[in-house]
Design a protein that fits this description.
- Chain A: This is ABC transporter permease.
- Chain A: Belongs to the binding-protein-dependent transport system permease family.
- Chain A: Its main location: membrane.
- The complex is a heterotrimer.
- Chain A is mainly α.
- Chain A folds into two domains: about 25-60 and about 370-525, Orthogonal Bundle (MetI-like fold), CATH 1.10.3720.10; about 65-345, MetI-like (MetI-like fold).
- Chain A has 25 helices and two strands.
- In chain A, strands 1-2 form a two-stranded antiparallel ribbon.
- In chain A, a hairpin with a 4-residue loop joins strand 1 and strand 2.
- The longest helix of chain A is centred in the middle third of the chain and has 41 residues, at about 355-395.
- Residues about 1-25 and about 405-410 of chain B have low confidence and may be disordered.
- In chain B, the strands form three sheets. Chain B has a six-stranded mixed sheet, with helices on both faces. Chain B has a five-stranded mixed sheet with strand order 9-8-10-7-11. A two-stranded antiparallel sheet of chain B has the order 4-5.
- Chain B has helices at about 1-20, 35-50, 60-70, 85-95, 135-140, 170-185, 185-200, 210-215, 225-235, 265-275, 275-280, 320-325, 330-340, 345-360, 365-380, 385-390, 395, 415-440, and strands at about 25-30, 55-60, 80, 110, 115, 125-130, 130-135, 165, 200-205, 220-225, 240-245, 250-255, 290.
- Chain B contains 18 helices and 13 strands.
- Helix content of chain B is about 45%, strand content about 15%.
- The longest helix of chain B has 27 residues, at about 415-440.
- A six-stranded mixed sheet of chain C has the order 6-7-8-3-9-10, sandwiched between helices. A five-stranded antiparallel sheet of chain C has the order 13-12-11-14-20.
- Chain C folds into two domains: about 10-235, 3-Layer(aba) Sandwich (Rossmann fold); about 240-355, OB fold (Dihydrolipoamide Acetyltransferase, E2P).
- The termini of chain C are far apart.
- In chain C, helix 2 packs parallel to helix 4 (about 140-150).
- The chains are: A mainly alpha, B alpha/beta, C alpha+beta.
- The interface of A and C includes residues 198, 200, 204, 216 and 305 of A.
């Protein structure tokens, strides 16, 4: 479909007379694809290769070698780090599942008035800015945090929630469980009601029904969410570093790459291994899900039957939900306390409360807020545009190599932020931007680009899912009525994908707004700093902790408001469409 | 909706591009100093020099160095401003600093035993800092502990699990602390002291400010920090105190002009301002609390801040040798991480076992047990390399950044060395623990 | 495979979705072993009634007795009612064998017995060779049979079929409905079959209930319903019906039907005076060339050749009347525009008194 027959009768241009393989005739959509491929190569693949090339060089001679990888596997510390990373990731998936499963189950299976609460609050942990989450968690669950101080005073015991790997697992599962919650809920909602009824009819009910029928049917969503959690935890370095856990791969890579003046290639070797392992995990999850796209084989749809809860069940459900929310929102509670507290030292609660932190924060942070809105806005907008384009090219065209667009964009998931940041410095410091008179690597736009690349996989998945739900017939109808490809995309496809695109935008925006790992390498000017960087500045002084927390609260509020707003738009859009269908 | 979005985006682009206009007189400063400190000095500098606009770029010392290295090809930064002299040594050796030739009259050559300015004129000291111990008074009284005053106190068994510190590879100031003790007490004794202190660690923090943070919140009780962390925490109202141990070095915090700076005049003006009496006065701000290098400035010093030019006991104990420190910089960092940071659990277990065994045999009557304990202690103390090796350029070459011709033979790669040390440490710690446990069971 | 036969008795069943009443005053008695159809247009409540028997949907008011036991308040998994879903609802993550074995496993049947019974059930539907396939590797007809096997293997007291043939193509549908009937007869299972297709209901069921607006309109054998519909809805819904509006006039013991246009048809005696509709099936009307006693003048509007029959649409008595003439070879057909006279066999007509 991309290379139609050559229009005859037109005068031959120079390009026409050259051999076809030199200038293959590309349809406009193929050109768009090519353009996106260039962006991905230029801003993702090439910079990352610049960095990880070091892993394949002899540190002294610069010759190509694999001996660094031999060193990696010979080192017991690295082997242990690898094991720890794996262990933490796997356990985080389990704990996140334990958190997400009851929430997903209760909201999808029952007429539960708290569902809206879960839907909106369930998203908030994802937008916890780095640095503050772990700090707040220490204040609540740490060795001498609120819980342990109270336990010690009243029962003479303490629980090591935050010691070593435990702390990482706890913080990570609280932070990332929404990935499982969102995907699992969507899957549960898509199950054909008769699948469940058939099982009930044959005698199954309760947990057995859930275990044997409902959950297996929801596995594709669950696996997608779990794989994401696994990879994010595996690659994440912020949390272990803040909890002072070094014996994991990502922190080892970071520590080695950023150490003063060292030319140790091991950091880069670890980066390569992180990237490779993440891609492997993605691939494994694709394998698991292959042939299990149950959503498309189910006809009736309509989701599972929702049941009313008896009073006792309702109390139980609320109890479970509130308990889980209390735990997953504890970083936010801690943050809120810290932002309003005066001094909080070795005490269950702050000594006193004040608004001074907010005043101080507001005086110095408006620029950060504006920058964040700008960067995250640009990044998320570009993400959904590119995401929609890739989704369309992959799902609707036969362009050769189209899958690679998907693979490349998704590979960004597997690239640690630091690696991307260093790659950009290496690649773009010598590229001067015309008219601005600065290297591209020091221009604020590069921060937005980094955020765009880092968040593209989220937006892409949302756009893919949205496009899969748009029936091909609707497009064909428009085309048969004379609309061209681009007009069809603009007038039919994109409006029908609106809900999914918006969801992608929100995910990209919200997570980009609190991103730090890549931006910290790229901020070249205080005035260009985004909010997360502002928090980071505040948090490194004793007197700035409260103000930093206040800025964190502001970040959460801004992003949460945006999320709720778009949730409302999505809901309205959904209603509009179901109304149109009935 | 779409229109509104577009409008807002456009407004955002306009406002922020307007604010990001590249001021003619902007001076870009790469610094590890916290916002608390830089904002005060920035305000004072811009008041004194309205023609310049200071752009602060906050990085940890190590990533600041990395940043300056990465952007060197097309440099956009004017000033590097941080504590650790070693970081400046690295930049200097990479030819990334300029000789600014700034007059330094009124400022002595030495503070304590340390030269204030780089003899070659690549960087200048503008404030002095010493290292010491800070503690949380609430934490200590809740745990029934006394504050530790000397490094060796921190190794006492009652502090087990109560101490926090950063790592020399992460924090330039921590590196100085470690090196100070190594120079003050000698290679073997110094490392032994660090290991026994580390046995009491609650954690090794990733950033140097993680230590005052941990003490301030009460996550651990005592921390090994640079003085201004203690002073400024106290000034912020946290229930903490700070003391200098006898073995400490007062070392200057530094500032240098980056080679090929886009705004060399502005850079010079900033350095000159920092060293001027007005600039020195800003260091007494409660959020900064650093010791000026200009003795004249002490007339206005707040109460409680020591004057190293009069109180000569401060930091005089150790003659800090920058060359020694520089020669084995990476070796010390790497040794600390491999022997302590990354194997903290093993080390803590071994140290705890010895502490318990010694408590069990406090009277020393059981000779067999005492011999086992001594053997265990020796295993923990043991170092994989000697001081001579650490100073041997051929040896430390495995760690350095400079790339040589293929014909130059370097004995071993860093990864190989670290693996050997790691094996050495884990084996010794495990054996020490086993011996101490056996002694305790007697 | 043997099943103890059970009858179904539904007494005064009412059901609402919130404020909307979906089923009203359902009373029904299905004999053991009977093949019973619920027939009605979409939205008539037939599927809701079936689902209420299986225990799905909102809790109804009233009684549902199976084999004399009221199951109306039992959860679905305790009812012992087998249901085949319109979408088949084969679980895509389980093989055919696992799907069929599911109900037996839930009933804690010993493993060895499960194996033999699953094999039997698959043999019954003729798909033993597909036991290890996954559902998405099967054709629609095969999925249908597996769904059936999965349901009958648990030996339910009654079998509920919710539009089981609607997802199959036309030729397969005819074949499947015969197989379904044969299977039902073999197992002797009391069966309820929900459909909107009168042909399916007519060809399979012993008796059926026609539903509209949540109310049972009529219950009877297919023949009774076709020949003696109690109201116009049933008349129209079952087969093609010509309905003439008018009045019955009784004069000296002889009844006549006078249409709105004033044409008169003579009637057998049973007619009662008053406003009435008369239902005439197409095959009970003849086309005459000459006007006779009680014939209606008309004009041919349209002709369709159906093979065994020729169907004419004739404008007469102020309405359009469908007339079927059986076709003989070489017969000359009437063309649109031809003037004709319609003679009705009123002995086979049904009179339905108009209410109000």
């Amino acid at each position: 479909m991309t290379q139609g027959p050559q229009p005859s009768g037109r005068p031959m241009s120079l390009a026409d007379r050259l051999p076809a393989f030199l200038f293959p005739r590309l349809s406009p959509i193929a050109l768009v694809g090519l353009f996106i491929a260039l962006i991905l190569v230029g801003f993702l693949i090439y910079p990352v290769l610049q960095v990880i090339a070091v892993a394949f060089q002899n540190p002294v001679t610069g010759a190509l070698t694999l001996e660094n990888f031999g060193d990696f596997f010979n080192s017991s510390l690295f082997r242990q780090s690898f094991f720890n990373s794996f262990y933490v990731s796997a356990l985080s998936v389990i704990v996140a599942t334990v958190i997400a499963l009851p929430l997903a189950y209760i909201t999808t299976r029952f007429n539960f008035s708290g569902s809206i609460l879960i839907q909106s609050l369930g998203f908030i942990p994802l937008i916890m800015p780095p640095f503050v989450g772990a700090v707040a968690m220490q204040l609540i669950f740490g060795r001498n945090g609120t819980i342990n101080l109270l336990l010690r005073d009243h029962f003479g015991i303490t629980i090591p929630f935050m010691e070593g790997l435990n702390g990482v697992i706890l913080v990570q599962s609280i932070h990332y469980f929404p990935f499982i919650l969102i995907n699992l809920s969507a899957s549960l909602r898509n199950i054909d009601r008769s699948m469940e009824e058939a099982a009930q009819n044959l005698g199954a009910h309760g947990l057995r029904l859930f275990r044997r029928i409902v959950f297996p049917l929801a596995t594709p969503g669950y696996v997608a969410g779990a794989a994401l959690v696994f990879i994010k935890v595996f690659d994440d370095l912020g949390t272990p570093l803040l909890l002072n856990v070094n014996n994991m791969l990502a922190p080892q890579a970071y520590l080695r790459i950023t150490s003063v003046g060292l030319n140790d290639p091991m950091g880069y070797v670890i980066s390569v291994i992180l990237v490779a392992f993440s891609i492997l995990s993605l691939w494994a999850s694709f394998l698991v899900m292959r042939g299990k796209d149950y959503a498309t084989v189910q006809k009736g749809g309509g989701g599972l039957a929702k049941r009313d809860l008896a009073l006792r069940e309702k109390i139980l459900a609320y109890g479970v939900v509130l308990f889980i929310l209390l735990i997953v929102l504890s970083p936010h509670i801690g943050l809120l306390l810290l932002s309003f507290g005066t001094i909080w030292s070795f005490a269950p609660l702050p000594d006193g409360y004040t608004l001074a932190n907010y005043v101080r924060m507001w005086e110095g942070s408006q620029q950060y807020v504006m920058n964040t809105l700008l960067y995250a806005g640009i990044a998320a907008t570009l993400d959904v545009i590119i995401g929609t384009a890739i989704a369309y090219i992959v799902l609707r065209t036969g362009i050769a190599g189209r899958k690679w667009l998907d693979y490349m964009a998704t590979a960004a998931l597997a690239v640690p932020g630091v690696v991307l940041g260093i790659g950009y410095l290496r690649t773009f410091q010598n590229v001067d931007v015309p008219l601005v008179g600065k290297p591209l690597a020091s221009w604020w736009v590069i921060i937005a680009i980094a955020l765009m690349i880092r968040r593209l996989p989220y937006a892409l998945r949302a756009c893919m899912a949205a496009l899969q739900q748009v029936s091909l017939a609707l497009e064909e109808a428009a085309e048969s009525l004379g609309a061209g490809k681009f007009r069809t995309i603009r007038r039919i496809v994109v409006p029908l994908m609106a809900g999914g695109i918006l969801a992608g935008f929100v995910t990209s925006f919200a997570t980009a707004a609190v991103e730090l790992s890549a931006t910290i390498m790229l901020v070249s000017n205080d005035r260009d700093s985004p909010l997360a960087y502002g928090i980071y500045l505040f948090m490194q002084t004793p007197s700035g902790r409260g103000a930093g927390a206040a800025l964190g609260v502001l970040a959460v509020v801004i992003v949460a408001l945006g999320t709720v707003l778009s949730q409302i738009i999505i809901e309205r859009d959904k209603k509009l469409r179901t109304a149109g269908r009935a | 909706m779409r229109k509104i979005l577009k409008g807002t985006a456009a407004a955002l682009v306009l406002t922020s591009t307007a604010s990001m206009a590249w001021a003619e007189g902007s001076v870009v400063v790469v610094t590890s100093f916290p916002d608390d400190m830089t904002s005060v000095i920035e305000a004072a500098f811009e008041a004194a020099h309205p023609e310049y606009d200071l752009e602060i770029l906050n990085r940890s010392t190590s990533s600041g160095v990395r940043y300056v290295q990465e952007i060197a090809a097309n440099n956009t930064a004017d000033i590097f401003w941080a504590s650790a002299p070693d970081a400046f040594e690295v930049l200097k050796s990479n030819h990334l600093l300029a000789q600014a030739g700034i007059a330094t009259e009124g400022i002595p050559d030495m503070i304590g035993a340390y030269p204030i300015n780089d003899p070659d004129g690549y960087y200048y000291g503008f404030a002095a800092s010493g290292y010491g111990i800070m503690w949380n008074t609430r934490y200590l009284s809740a745990n029934g502990l006394e504050p530790a005053r000397e490094w060796s106190d921190l190794a006492r068994p009652e502090y087990y699990g109560h101490v926090g510190m950063s790592s020399p590879s992460r924090s330039g100031t921590t590196h100085l602390t470690v090196e100070t003790v190594l120079q003050g007490e000698g290679w073997e004794a110094g490392w032994s002291e660090w290991k026994w202190i580390a046995g009491n660690f609650a954690s090794v923090t990733e950033r140097s400010f993680g230590v005052p943070d941990g003490v301030n919140t009460g996550n651990f009780g005592l921390g090994i920090v640079i003085d201004f962390f203690g002073f400024s925490s106290q000034a912020s109202g946290f229930p903490v105190e700070f003391a200098y141990p006898t073995v400490t070095a007062l070392v200057p915090a530094n500032v240098g002009v980056i080679e090929n700076a886009p705004n060399p005049e502005g850079a010079r003006a900033f350095v000159e301002f920092l060293l001027s009496p007005a600039g020195q006065q800003t260091l007494f701000d409660p959020a900064i609390m650093r010791l000026p290098v200009n003795p004249a400035a002490y007339d206005a010093a707040p109460e409680g801040l020591p004057n190293p030019f009069e109180d000569t006991s401060l930091g005089a104990e150790v003659l800090f040798d920058v060359d020694t420190s520089g020669a084995r910089y990476y070796v010390v960092s790497s040794l600390f991480d491999v022997l302590i940071t990354y194997r903290l659990d093993d080390l803590r277990a071994a140290v705890r076992a010895v502490q318990l065994a010694e408590e069990r045999h406090a009277d020393g009557s059981n000779a067999e047990a005492m011999a086992l304990i001594a053997e265990a202690r020796a295993l923990i103390d043991a170092m994989p390399i000697t001081e001579e090796q650490s100073l041997d350029p051929a040896f430390s070459g495995a760690f350095t950044a400079t790339r040589r011709a293929a014909s130059d033979q370097v004995e071993q790669r860093q990864a190989e060395l670290e693996q050997q040390w790691d094996a050495f440490a884990t084996q010794n710690y495990a054996r020490a623990r086993e011996l101490a446990d056996r002694a305790a069971a007697m | 495979m043997k099943t103890e036969m059970a009858g179904i008795e539904i007494r005064d069943l009412h059901l609402s979705f919130g404020e909307t009443r979906v089923l009203t005053g359902i009373n029904l008695s299905i004999k053991p072993g009977e093949f019973f159809a619920f027939l009605g247009p979409s939205g008539s409540g037939k599927s809701t009634l079936l689902r209420a028997i299986a225990g799905f949907g909102p809790q109804p008011r009233g009684e549902i007795l199976i084999g004399g036991r009221d199951i109306a308040t039992l959860p679905p998994w305790k009812r012992d009612v087998g249901m085949v879903f319109q979408s088949y609802a084969l679980w895509p993550h389980m093989s055919v064998r696992d799907n069929v074995a599911f109900g037996l496993e839930e009933r804690k049947v010993p493993r060895a017995e499960i194996r033999t019974r699953v094999d039997e059930a698959l043999a019954l539907v003729g798909l033993s060779h597909l036991a290890d396939r996954m559902p998405n590797q099967l054709s629609g007809g095969q999925q249908q049979r597996i769904a059936l096997a999965r349901t009958v293997v648990i030996e339910p007291k009654v079998l509920l079929l919710d539009e089981p043939l609607s997802n199959l193509d036309a030729s397969l549908r005819v074949q499947m409905r015969r197989e379904l009937l044969a299977l039902q007869r073999k197992l002797g299972l009391t069966t309820i079959f929900v459909t909107h297709d009168q042909e399916e209901a007519n060809t399979t069921s012993d008796r059926m209930a026609v539903l509209d607006g949540g109310v049972i309109q009529q219950i009877g054998t297919p023949q009774e319903l076709y020949d003696r519909p109690v109201n116009l809805f049933v008349a129209r819904f079952l087969g093609t019906a010509n309905i003439l509006e008018g009045r019955v006039e009784v004069e000296a013991g002889a009844a006549r039907f006078r249409t709105a246009t004033g044409d008169v048809l003579s009637l057998p005696v049973e007619g009662r005076a008053g406003p009435t509709s008369i239902v005439l099936r197409p095959q009970n009307i003849r086309i005459e060339e000459q006007a006779g006693a009680g014939t209606l003048p008309g004009e041919v509007l349209h002709r369709e050749f159906l093979g065994s029959q020729v169907r004419y649409l004739v404008r007469a008595a102020g309405t359009e009347i469908v007339v079927d003439q059986s076709h003989r070879a070489g017969e000359i057909w009437l063309d649109p525009g031809a003037r004709v006279h319609l003679a009705a066999n009123t002995r086979d007509a049904v009179l339905i008194a108009q209410e109000g």
